[in-house]
Model the fold of this input.
Amino acid sequence: MSVDTKAADPVVPIEDPEFYTTDPWPTFAWMRRERPFYYYAPLDTFVVTRQRDIHEITDQADVFVNSRGLFLADIKYASQSGDAGVTNAFFPEGGEQVGTTDAPRHHDLRRVIMPAFSVAAMEEVQVPVAAQAAALLDGVTPGTPVDWMELAAQIPITAACHLIGLPATDHGRVQFWSDELEKLGGDLTLEQIQAAAAEFQSLQAYITEQVELKKSGPVTGKDLLSVLLTAELDGKTVSHANVVMFAMTALAAGGDTSRSMLGGLVHCFADHPDQWDLLRKDRSLLRNAVEEVLRWVTPARAFVRTAIRDVTVGGQAIREGQHVYLLYMAANRDEAAFEDADRFDITREDTAKHMAFGAGPHACAGSRLARMQGRAVLEALLDRFSRIELAGPATPVRGHLIRNSWTSMPAVFSR
Done:
């Protein structure tokens, strides 16, 4: 639903998933211009839509913390979910989640996991990802419609299995757990979220099983489990709870958002055939094209931060305990940050300033992995097809508050 921006104080329904899928862009433009810190009273939350304001907030991670919740559901159900919170209910007790831990502990935890996201580690993961992308597209019959989202869903699971060090034969189980965690950002009741969290707990036993298998032989790989089993934290080996937590978080954070990005690749180039033709003529634009898709799609729409003391940002006073909703998708069309921001243009020089991976010390640790998948799929598409078209309307994900994506996308690929 589009908001009537002519009203003196329009209500922007940030808790309504339909709002994000039915042309919210005029509303976002109005917010950036007139209400850059739009106050959403039901959750005592300021919705932030300008890039410069989001940067100022994320650079003050000691003031705007992650530990009090990342999602609107964390705020909405805070009084009912207790100290554990909605997000933490999905993860093992005693484990520390990188995304919901504040500095200085956040830096310690991030340091431990980053070797698994190194350039060398990504080069190893790229091999099976590129092979799978090639195999999937070799199976596409030119001129015959396929559901691109069914294909796109498979690649992030392959990437996650190799990143974490899980058997490549367990794709179905990994996909199930990834889908369960997506419900955390859905428009669900507390009971529905708790039911999904209970299902997700079965992943703990599976990862424990894989950890024991790793320990039974030489631990030498660049995968996350191997990295964790040979790393130190606080001068000793990483606790089992943290090994399980880090592995679960890696799976949770990358699966659905990478699927969204890969869906966006096809959707963007089907909608902008001139840009596809341009890329086919000049593959040096490939990396920039992936960045522009990320800016355009913004798979993760927004995350929450909470002020732990009174502060003023961008002229807006924010009291201790109030929340800010960092609306990255609106900031990625910020006219002050991007020239002609509402144009999809793979040649734009400013596209790398996008906020698809957040900003500040909590920027996504898996950004290199996501970009690698985008490039691998785009290369495979370019090698095989001269034209990409939609064979019918793509169906956006409904009932989800944090992700921009599609449940189905009928597409036709031509030689």
